[in-house]
Design brief:
Blueprint: E1 4-5, E2 10-12, H1 17-20, H2 30-36, H3 45-48, H4 63-78, E3 82-84, E4 90-97, E5 100-110, H5 111-115, E6 119-120, H6 127-140, E7 142-143, E8 147-151, H7 155-164, E9 171-174, E10 180-186, H8 189-199, E11 205-209, H9 211-227, E12 239-246, E13 252-253, E14 255-259, H10 267-274, E15 278-282, E16 296-301, E17 304-310, H11 325-334, E18 349-353, H12 358-366, E19 371-374, H13 380-388, E20 399-400, E21 411-412
Parallel strand pairs: 6-11, 8-12
Antiparallel strand pairs: 1-5, 2-3, 4-5, 4-10, 5-12, 7-21, 8-11, 9-10, 13-20, 14-18, 14-19, 15-17, 16-17, 16-19
Helix pairs in contact: 4-6, 6-9
Length: 414
């Protein structure tokens, strides 16, 4: 059974919560982050992307960046902007976006559950991205960004959490993008113990988002264990920061694709080639076409939208990975026709989260890219089935919104 425990969070005092909270480090580049922190010395981006406080030419992976991150984290605590709770707590974190709420429990997951596959993965990770977060966590001596986990909902857990939300929240603020963020603190030791017990009975946890942060946290724990061979398992470095959501409350958005060129094909040749595995027809609507069912795709090329439908026999409907739309597009179009073999490293393809809308696809193609594809979102059922089968999704299969803010909860490793 997976373990989820309360902890003593280092977190902002209520009056600073909205100024400290920041989007996760990996959804913007350094230049965008510098703009975001202007006029706000408390933004957690000063910790998670500390290059914002260094010269523009600074290598973001140099020693100075990690040292600055640690310095900025310590300053938040020294200045009283963030304080540690006196007793281990769970924290309820609710986000409301477009009238849809997702409510999770903030606590610490056990690294051995990741090692022993009780925390299920569905993506591969890149060594360079892992190395960055390993150094960041190790230098800061803290998990600074939460891992987005989910589980199969249990009514008794939901009932306890719902009951606590009738009380006054610790934080309640709305970010510039219109997302309401509300936090309640569960200090009662008996309630925390009951929640931990119930969560231990729900079965496996699933990584929804944050594979690199999760793998990095586990690698730091392994390093600390080697450095402390007499560890007994209770040390904080054996755990990592996470927010655990009932899967039924989550929504995956589409993760769309845009490609720079047609690999030497004319538009006519390209459409003829994809017609072998897809039914190609004019989009059944004016304007941008968003697929309404699995195995349908939108395609925007030369100012026009098309509807593509994968033909029967071009994928295995019983294979949980092969039947994914991202797999079908990759296997039957992107690789054989556009010569994009590894979408994680090929510079000719880019990926656009559904939060940016299909108008962004039109803008990119009208601005010089060759073709864009709008996708039907991967489902939570697909994600869990693939993880349960110990299989891996293709890159860029899922896009979750809203993003969990960083800086509201920090887990110190000692």
């Amino acid at each position: 059974m997976a373990v989820f425990k309360p902890f003593k969070a280092l977190r902002p005092t209520p009056e600073y919560a909205s100024r400290v909270a920041a989007l996760p480090y990996d959804v913007m580049n350094s230049e965008e982050a510098k703009v975001m922190v202007e006029g706000n010395p408390y933004s957690f981006l000063h910790v998670d992307k500390a290059e914002v406080d260094l010269p523009d030419c600074t290598d973001i992976y140099c020693d100075e960046v990690y040292a600055k991150a640690k310095e900025n984290l310590l300053k938040l605590e020294a200045d009283g902007i963030c304080k540690s709770d006196d007793t281990p707590c769970f924290y309820i974190y609710r986000q409301i976006m477009n009238d849809r709420a997702q409510t999770g429990l903030v606590g610490c997951a056990w690294v051995d559950d990741y090692i022993n596959n009780r925390i299920k993965k569905h993506e591969l990770t890149r060594a360079d991205k892992e190395a960055d977060r390993i150094r960041h966590v190790d230098t800061c001596d803290a998990n600074t960004g939460p891992i987005f986990l989910c589980y199969k909902e249990q009514s008794e857990i939901t009932k306890i959490i719902d009951g606590y939300m009738n009380g006054a929240p610790e934080y309640d603020f709305t970010t510039d993008d219109g997302i309401q963020n509300t936090v309640w603190v569960i200090e009662d030791a008996d309630v925390c113990a009951k929640l931990a017990e119930l969560l231990g009975s729900v079965g496996d946890f699933y990584i929804a988002d944050g594979h690199h942060r999760c793998a990095s946290a586990v690698n730091v724990a392994k390093m600390r264990r080697e450095q402390n061979p007499d560890f007994d398992g209770t040390e904080e470095f054996n755990y990592f920061l996470a927010v655990l959501f009932p899967a039924e409350s989550l929504e995956i958005m589409d993760y769309n694709r845009v490609v720079k060129d047609l690999n030497g094909n004319t538009e006519g040749e390209f459409i003829d080639k994809i017609s072998a595995d897809f039914v190609v027809e004019a989009a059944p609507c004016d304007g941008a076409y968003h697929p309404h069912a699995k195995h349908n795709f939108g395609m925007y090329i030369n100012g026009k939208w098309y509807k593509l439908t994968a033909k029967e026999g071009t994928f295995d409907p019983k294979n949980p990975v092969d039947q994914l739309d991202v797999s079908i597009l990759q296997k039957n179009l992107l690789t054989p026709i556009l010569n994009i073999g590894d979408p994680r490293t090929d510079k000719r393809i880019d990926f656009i989260g559904g939060i940016r809308g299909l108008g962004e696809l039109e803008r990119l193609v009208d601005g010089g890219m060759a073709v864009a594809f709008s996708m039907y979102p991967t489902t939570l059922s697909d994600l869990m089935s693939i993880a349960d089968a110990n299989l891996i999704m293709p890159p860029k299969s899922t896009w979750f919104e809203p993003k969990l803010l960083s800086g509201l909860f920090i887990h110190k490793l000692k």
